[in-house]
Amino acid sequence: MCLKLLFGFDNLPVVYVLFTVIQVGLSINGFKGIKWLENVSCVFLIGILAYMLYVVNTKFSVEIGERFANIEGTWGMPFWAATTAFLGIYSTMILNASDYSRHVKKGTTPTATGVIYVLSILPVTLFMGLIGLLVTAATGNSDPIEVFATAMDNKFLTVITLLFIAFAQVTTNVLNNIVPPSYILMDSFKMKWSHATILVGILSICVMPWKLVTAESADGLSLFIKIYSAFLGPIFAVMVVDYYILRKRTLNVNDLYNKEGIFKGINWAAIIAIAIGSFCSLIVVDLSWYVSLIPSGLSYYILMRVLKSSEAFRKGTVLEHQ
User: Fold this and answer.
1) pLDDT in tens, 230-258
2) Are the beta carbons of 202 and 262 closer than 8 angstroms?
3) Rounded CA gap, 123 and 128, in Å?
4) Where are the bilayer-spanning segments (predicted)?
5) Domains of the chain
6) What is the pTM of this model?
7) DSSP letter string, 117-183
8) Who contacts 23 (Cβ-Cβ below 8 Å, separation ≥6)?
């Protein structure tokens, strides 16, 4: 959208390939380069979003006031379905938090780490959600970038802002969509970082994601997010039960990477629990993430107690000497 507004070019496949090449190029030198890039971009991103909010609220204050004057909210299915989609998107970041926390300086407390996560995610998320809500309410157009560009009176500021938005999209994708799968490829296939990032870029092009962002695919994209949430929710539940309930927040990180250690093999209690939670989720797809939590967590705890094949994985847990 930014390139279309700036240069009149909107060939999505070509734009996606171009952005992917840029993202892979920025990532190929490792996490230190990515960290520097993110530190620079986050300042501009917060500033741009604040400015966009100001412009939208100023230009459409009357429409926004009229639209929200007598609006009635709901805590029913629309709200919970929307938050399910939101959690589905951010579950990948939640489950892959260690990809980023491993680079935190030694001695950083869990509280400080939590504050870092909140400050890095919450302000931007709230800004984006609020801008999208106001724009849609005022104009009926759900694309805040398009509305913002047409609402600006200053052409120079419009161009600069849109360029920074495009830059922010690149940096966000680098952190969220390149780092986690690259680490997975490195761990699974013993690949070098540079090779893994290039392969991630190639694979991302092969799945043709530009097909998912068209107006015709909006409903399908929403359904897709809810369906894969059905699998991410159970994984989250198993991890929470294992860390907080079974291991009482005590975990030897070195054991995780010891091929002959206590985590050697497959913990079928976790696999079965995830399968149970996923099955329950698919029954109520609109609430998939929430529906999966209790079945997965409870079944994992029970299976860890009774499953013979999971006996080795009980070491270091409250079930070790049962």
Assistant:
1) 888 999 999 999 999 999 988 888 888 88
2) no
3) 9
4) 12-29, 36-55, 75-95, 115-136, 156-175, 196-213, 225-245, 266-284, 290-307
5) 1-212 (1.10.4160.10), 215-321 (no CATH)
6) 0.78
7) HHHHHHHHHHHHHHHHHHHHHHHS---HHHHHHHH-S-HHHHHHHHHHHHHHHHHHHIIIIIHHHHH
8) 170, 173, 174, 177, 178, 201
